[in-house]
Amino acid sequence: xxxxxxxxxxxxxxxxxxxxxxxxxxxxxxxxxxxxxxxxxxxxxxxxxxxxxxxxxxxxxxxxxxxxxxxxxxxxxxxxxxxxxxxxxxxxxxxxxxxxxxxxxxxxxxxxxxxxxxxxxxxxxxxxxxxxxxxxxxxxxxxxxxxxxxxxxxxxxxxxxxxxxxxxxxxxxxxxxxxxxxxxxxxxxxxxxxxxxxxxxxxxxxxxxxxxxxxxxxxxxxxxxxxxxxxxxxxxxxxxxxxxxxxxxxxxxxxxxxxxxxxxxxxxxxxxxxxxxxxxxxxxxxxxxxxxxxxxxxxxxxxxxxxxxxxxxxxxxxxxxxxxxxxxxxxxxxxxx
Length: 337
Fold this sequence. Notes:
14 strands, Rossmann fold, single chain, 11 helices, alpha/beta, Dihydrodipicolinate Reductase, domain 2, 6-stranded parallel beta sheet, globular
């Protein structure tokens, strides 16, 4: 194993505590050196060997840090990432990379100029439901795909306590928060759409941000992809529905990694990422004689750790990070339109 990548974490809220610190701690290719905690000092209770810093400048200017994880509120991503790059750090930025096409392009250009990697964190490529879905698509059992529906349903009819998510600032709202996950999944499968239509809405009383988002993405060969994210769905629908010339695939939205992490499990624990029974997808194929054959498609083991393995392979061996600049720019043409 090469020298570990000394890493700093820019926040220790839910994102830092659940989606970053456990993986940086468990992956032998990283050394989590410090975390920014302006008020509450919780990180050292979980990781006694790290340092809790009071100011961003201490992490940005730390001479021993090679990689900074930018997991602060969306509207601060650009500023912190720019400062980190100028301080000689590689950056792993929580989605969304920034809040505009111009900011995102500038970060990639700055990284290229300074010889530093700009990597965007999209863990939902490695969720158990999407991994199973990718396998079905790549098997070509569905024939030519005609339509695909992806949904991210929640029910929260009140304004949440996280002001940075509920205030009308750049990068807020459900499209940037949840819709960006689904948009990244689609672009990772099919690339940039030929054209798109976008509908946003705000339905909760007193909301300042969109709490409903719908995208219609149009691809070659008459493929239509529909993305919906909503905060007001009391009865969540199937998260993944695909129809092709030979059959259909339906899968509930599921990934146990977040729940397991919140319950205290570690990425290396036995059973981590494995779905409970009853989460299988349903694949229905129409045979040549017109009869239908239905088979279950088990959820694959979720692998958020693959994000960090990809970061390691990129920084230590120069391999292409899977979430490419072209894919991110294609996302922002839709998000920021």
